TrEMBL record:
A GO BP annotation: L-histidine catabolic process
Family annotation (InterPro entries): Urocanase-like (IPR023637), Urocanase_central_sf (IPR038364), Urocanase_Rossmann-like (IPR035085), Urocanase_sf (IPR036190)
Domain Urocanase Rossmann-like: start-end pairs: 2-214
Pfam families: Urocanase
Native source organism of the sequence: Rhinopomastus cyanomelas
Chain segments annotated as transmembrane: none
Molecular-function GO terms, alphabetical: urocanate hydratase activity
Name by which UniProt lists this protein: HUTU hydratase
Amino acid sequence: LTVLNAGRCYLKAEDLSGKVFVTSGLGGMSGAQAKAAVIAGCVGIIAEVDEAALLKRHKQGWLMEISNNLDHCIARLREARKNKIALSLGYHGNVVDLWERLVYELDKTGELLVDLGSDQTSCHNPFNGGYYPVQLGFEEAKQLIATNPGKFRTLVQESLKRHVAAINKLADKGMFFWDYGNAFLLEAQRAGADVSKKGANKTEFRYPSYVQHIMG
């Protein structure tokens, strides 16, 4: 319902076939995003750093395909988008790399490959395994949490700034991003990312929330 209503509200589209939804997180409740994309008829690309979570969702049938190769992900995205095939593709990697690759494709070809975007990393707990920084691999990051939590915190905040910078570039070209109630925008703001709504107070963000603006 969230994906469908986001399409209705922000794309003015009842039919999401050929539309692309990019997000992250395949653990817990966020695992439903892959299934939701296919039910809504769109192309869903969901990034996940934890291979165990990715393989679990694939084994359960919630993910149709998995890949750890961004070139392959972009090729599949283009193919499914062109042919209006419903697809859920799990990318084993950091979502910041995926967002930045989409910016690269936009800069290189002028083509906006994503229509809808969100995030379901556990940003309510960003410094203890809820969000993994793009600068490190999954296992290396887990070790750093234990050995140098201050350094880990700094890397998370740097990653959040890169994360938002990529989303902002795509949103400026027409991609619609929303907050999934996971404190992503709040933690990005605390990290110094550009998520504030211009001309509004500090508690308002430039992107809508699924609770008030989409489901409401």
